[in-house]
Amino acid sequence: QTVTAASADFVAKQRKYLAPGVATYYDTPIVMSHGAGCYLYASDGTKYLDFFGGILTVSVGHAHPRVNRAVIDQIQKLTHVSTLYVTTPMVELAQRLAEITPGDLAVSFFTSSGTEANETAIAMARMATGAYEVVALRHSYSGRSALAATLTGQAGWRLGMHGTPGVVHAMNAYCYRCPFGKTPDRCGLECAKDMEETLRTSTSGRVAAVIAEPIQGVGGFITPPDAYFQEIAETVRKYGGLFIADEVQTGFGRTGRAFGIEHSGVQPDLMTFAKGLANGHPIGATIATPAVAAAYTKPTISTFGGNPVSMRAALTTLDVIAEENLTENARVQGQRLREGLEELQRRYPMIGDVRGKGLMQGMEFVRADKEPAPDLVAKFAEYTRQNGLLIGKGGLYGNTVRIAPAMNVSAAQVQEALEQMAEALARMTAEEPELARLSAD
Ligand code: PMP
């Protein structure tokens, strides 16, 4: 596929007028024009099967007619009042979140992004506990404010803003590259034990919270065993801290259950949401137990937080997920996708690891001795794009492929994506025959 003169022009304009740090995929950026369901259309007419969904944001598909109708209807009535007044959609969404989240999570605060949702959660945890320090996990991603960038466990995403005081990082459970050299079935969860070690060595001994993604998104879909969360939650609570589940990527059915943390049975004290909640409309939400929320009494405002347009988009997205049984579809199609990726792994030893839950599946690309191979991921992304498929990249080493289509993806679309991926892998192997001879370690 070649870039047309018009889009080359457009790309030049983009490079001139948009900040250079903006992360774009592909050497010749794709100029997107419109979308429908699992498909995206570029301005040069190329049709793409979208298996990244705007980084897990388009949860029920691009331009979903029901979500669009709700948004248009709301825009015609009222777009904004700030939090000086309340609107029905805002209260309705808060009630809906209380009904569908586990345990006694019940009180919400709305913002416009995942970054703000996490900032709010940390503020609430600090006010509720009277403690200041926070434990985050290595390889995590929390957002782009100074605090959220400091919580983020990857230097590359910190925007040079690392340094907000009171944040320490504990080991995550990265089983494919276990820092203790163990294998998952007989490891004694050394990584979870590091939580206590971190609390004892690197904090004052009293902390406000631990913040954890049930599956680390930007970190490369690193998927800890359920027992890891049980153990770290118990440990942090022993030191007075709350458990914050960052469900920005894993929430609302994506993993085959309503929330990612539910697989582990841990009851969080706070949960944060953004991305897929409103199917692409700007939103952030923090939900807390009544006891935690009761401490959040300092005057605060978020100008666009809780705006009725985003609230209606979210309410309708949640209706679609419930009525069309999309959590179950994420489980079933996720299983199909997973089996297909494991089949590819058996054929192509450059796929070192396949991991994830539901429609959140990742593959780590390696050379001999598990050496991270970001160049192979870049090539794979380019070749799948040439085949008409969009996938994501990620991971601390940039060597993870992230796959997360809209939750109403069909079996045929999963099959089509797997075939496009197989074709890209075959082409890469033809170009570099040694890739077929790696040890499948
Ligand atoms: N938490 C997680 C787990 C995320 O993946 C992201 C975004 N990638 C954020 C927080 C920050 O969200 P936003 O970009 O909306 O600020």
UniProtKB/TrEMBL annotation:
<keyword id="KW-0808">Transferase</keyword>
<dbReference type="InterPro" id="IPR015424">
    <property type="entry name" value="PyrdxlP-dep_Trfase"/>
</dbReference>
<dbReference type="Pfam" id="PF00202">
    <property type="entry name" value="Aminotran_3"/>
</dbReference>
<dbReference type="InterPro" id="IPR005814">
    <property type="entry name" value="Aminotrans_3"/>
</dbReference>
<comment type="similarity">
    <text>Belongs to the class-III pyridoxal-phosphate-dependent aminotransferase family.</text>
</comment>
<protein>
    <recommendedName>
        <fullName>alanine--glyoxylate transaminase</fullName>
        <ecNumber>2.6.1.44</ecNumber>
    </recommendedName>
</protein>
<dbReference type="InterPro" id="IPR015422">
    <property type="entry name" value="PyrdxlP-dep_Trfase_small"/>
</dbReference>
<dbReference type="InterPro" id="IPR049704">
    <property type="entry name" value="Aminotrans_3_PPA_site"/>
</dbReference>
<keyword id="KW-0032">Aminotransferase</keyword>
<dbReference type="InterPro" id="IPR015421">
    <property type="entry name" value="PyrdxlP-dep_Trfase_major"/>
</dbReference>
<comment type="subunit">
    <text>Homotetramer.</text>
</comment>
<keyword id="KW-0809">Transit peptide</keyword>
<keyword id="KW-0663">Pyridoxal phosphate</keyword>
